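#struct-pred
JK: can someone run the complex with iron/sulfur cluster? inputs below
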Amino acid sequence: MSLKLSIAERLGKDVFELSGQRHILVDARVCREKCREKPCLYFCPADLFKLNAEGDIVHDCDGCLECGTCRVGCPHEAVTWDYPEGGYGVSFRFG
Ligand code: SF4
Ligand code: SF4
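RT: done, structure tokens with the ligand placed:
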């Protein structure tokens, strides 16, 4: 019998080594002034883009899967993206 895991359960198996440095920067001014739809609220598989009480986008690097979706998916080039510095970031655990 095979056991199917939910996406949250699969992501919960991953291990993150945090460097304390932000490897993704988001220009909140561009988000506020140019982006009405805010698709990052939907396309980040780790759900790291949120709206704060003022309606501004806030982004948390912790838990980033390094998929690069926000790098190519932001329609206003508000995301400055790099991999975490050597040795840090996500380690995927399959199974
Ligand atoms: S899609 Fe890009 S510009 Fe729009 S809110 Fe998200 S990060 Fe900002
Ligand atoms: S690289 Fe992927 S997981 Fe990381 S913040 Fe961007 S969309 Fe989310």
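RT: quick notes.
The pocket of iron/sulfur cluster (ligand 2) is lined by residues 24, 44-46, 48, 64-70 (CB under 6 Å).
The longest strand covers residues 15-17.
JK: thanks, will look after standup
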